[in-house]
User: Fold this.
Amino acid sequence: MPRKLVVLGDSSAYGWGDPDHGGWCERLRRHWMGLPDGPVLYNLGVRGDGLERLAARLPAEVGCRGELRRQAPQGILINIGLNDTARVGRRDGRHQLGPDAFLFGLQQLLPQARALAPVLVLGLAPVDEAVMPYADCLWYDLATVHRYERLLEEACLEADLPFLPLLEPLLADPHWLRLIDADGLHLNAAGHQRVYERVIQWPALLRWAELETALVSTPGR
Assistant:
């Protein structure tokens, strides 16, 4: 039986902004589906989700993806946090989930997830501050996204879990704004392709998938 990976996250995992190829997660699913004995990927990204909502659905989502009776997925990939960074109502408003609460929530979530299956964690993508607020009420900014990605990394180091940062590698492109949808919040097709290219070469994920020696390609350009 192929290994099964559950991807839990928000609109980034869901693939919003990439109508042609379905996002980085869908690109990965299609790539694996084309490999002999490639892993099965369940994309359980939900638009608007934050850490607390993801934590609430974690046990049920993972528990019913084993395919066979009394079987469970062999891995969980978590891609969450961007929605928690948003300030509500105004540029200096309260966060949807404050930094301390975000870190505390991660410190609770990650051990719970690891008790179900091996866990990998993905970082956060940049936002375009110039077009905020999103939906006329949510303010996102790069400094806060930086802070929350560092909290993700801190929690993963503490829990000894693999973490793949996204923010700095994406911002290293001098034309990184071309990777962001017009709404300023979501990746566009080019942005999802860039994330896919990082994820598909992630050593921790390749080890989990038992594909370390596989020829890595990047379809979907």
